[in-house]
Amino acid sequence: MIDALLSALPLVFEPANLFAVLLGTVAGLVVGALPGLTVTTGIAVLIPLTFGLDPLFALGMMAGMYNGGSYGGAIPAILLRVPGTPASVATILDGYEMTKQGKAAYALQVAVVSGVIGSVLSAISLIIFAPGLVKLSLLFGPAEYFWVAILGLATVASLLGDDFLKGLIATVIGLLIGTIGTDISSGTERYTFGLLEFADGLDIVVLLSALFAIPPVLMMIEEALKTGMPGDLLKLKRQGSVLADWRRYLPIWMRSSVIGIIIGVLPGAGGSMSCYLAYNDAKRASRQPETFGKGNPEGVAASEAGNGADNAASLIPALTLGIPGSGVAAVILGGLLVHGLRPGPQLFAEHPDVVYGFMVQMLLSAVMLAVVGGLTATRIFGQALRLPRVVLAPVIMLFVTVGVYAVNNTMFDLYTLLGIGLVAYMLDKLDYPNAPIILGVILGPIAESQLLLAMTISGGDPMALVSSPMSMIMIALTLFVLATPLWTVWKQRRRSSVEPAK
């Protein structure tokens, strides 16, 4: 391993390959920051353009776009309450609240530093622990993945939002939306109402835009403010330094990075789940959990560190077993095949300079992100808040509309965007959290498919769901997560009933 790593370093630091990583990082920032575009889409478009190029040059651009897009999604999430990527939804909860408090620059600073730390630790784990960590993923079968999805649903439903019941209702709404489409077991259509456009379910980009972009646009129109945020509030130097407060964030960075790495290693479980679990872990460990969702920078730090740590870790099962840990990793697998590189143990034996070079490029792109994202992108995108809201609202709507239409090039998606957006606006007014809805849409199909697979393998025996130690651990964690808010409510009621007696 050491010899292969040393032989790959000179190739990585060739000027052309360094430029590839830088170019990919900048492109990833732009792709992540544009609502409607995802890192998966960006890399999918990039792969055909790299055909015929040197493999390490092409992989360097993919590595840069992966890490750059991961942070890029946090920019519109913090500034505009519009998630650039699905994994940046949790960043909205505190990031946008900080923006409303005039702390947008500091929130972006927290996001980029946290994302870089998570990405660096994830890349180091990819380089050092790839063979060992992949053994962990082998312990998870369909039953275990089912309980992982249930744990994710339970965690978000109980810890996001001030009302436990509303959190559960929002999660159920997401699960119901996730059932729209063709049943994977029988092939029959469910809740499509005879519309062919619903046969594959609702597109995730349309849902994200409808749930998180339309409501704030309508609120901006409702407020009709004709003045933007003063430029003084957007200067980084006047809002403190994240690195100066490192003692406050260090425990969060470490725990969130570990969560992101573990989730990334599990094939199919990566992406949005890591940032949610990291966010909820930070809230659970905080001495002031009630401040989360109201502008606590620790929420931004946890979400972005977990999100960044998922990146390189999701490539561990992809490179060693050919099993992608996330959608982006699946596209990168396609990129490897395009360049004649077959994922699996033989990849390390036949092309050690390329595979270890790619690992180093993941680390290098994370370091570049600190410079490009922290010094350039933050300052440029931060100026968006200086636009008056009556101007900003139609600009956001324009970007969202173009992004949604570009997904499938159909007007039906725009009609769906408007319909769901109006419902989401009403839910916002009624204080229902939107984040559990989107996670229900993401995790619901995962739980359903893994449950059906587990039942098929076991011949319909329900005991297969609780037959392994890992399943029992996941069930215990799920019960603990659900019991925590109920215990808190019970203590508050008991305290309130005792106080008058004094």
From TrEMBL:
<feature type="transmembrane region" description="Helical">
    <location>
        <begin position="145"/>
        <end position="161"/>
    </location>
</feature>
<dbReference type="Pfam" id="PF01970">
    <property type="entry name" value="TctA"/>
</dbReference>
<feature type="transmembrane region" description="Helical">
    <location>
        <begin position="44"/>
        <end position="66"/>
    </location>
</feature>
<keyword id="KW-0472">Membrane</keyword>
<keyword id="KW-1133">Transmembrane helix</keyword>
<protein>
    <submittedName>
        <fullName>C4-dicarboxylate ABC transporter permease</fullName>
    </submittedName>
</protein>
<feature type="transmembrane region" description="Helical">
    <location>
        <begin position="198"/>
        <end position="221"/>
    </location>
</feature>
<feature type="transmembrane region" description="Helical">
    <location>
        <begin position="437"/>
        <end position="458"/>
    </location>
</feature>
<feature type="transmembrane region" description="Helical">
    <location>
        <begin position="358"/>
        <end position="378"/>
    </location>
</feature>
<feature type="transmembrane region" description="Helical">
    <location>
        <begin position="167"/>
        <end position="186"/>
    </location>
</feature>
<feature type="transmembrane region" description="Helical">
    <location>
        <begin position="106"/>
        <end position="133"/>
    </location>
</feature>
<dbReference type="InterPro" id="IPR002823">
    <property type="entry name" value="DUF112_TM"/>
</dbReference>
<feature type="transmembrane region" description="Helical">
    <location>
        <begin position="16"/>
        <end position="37"/>
    </location>
</feature>
<feature type="transmembrane region" description="Helical">
    <location>
        <begin position="470"/>
        <end position="490"/>
    </location>
</feature>
<feature type="transmembrane region" description="Helical">
    <location>
        <begin position="390"/>
        <end position="408"/>
    </location>
</feature>
<feature type="domain" description="DUF112">
    <location>
        <begin position="18"/>
        <end position="439"/>
    </location>
</feature>
<keyword id="KW-0812">Transmembrane</keyword>
<feature type="transmembrane region" description="Helical">
    <location>
        <begin position="258"/>
        <end position="279"/>
    </location>
</feature>
<feature type="transmembrane region" description="Helical">
    <location>
        <begin position="315"/>
        <end position="338"/>
    </location>
</feature>
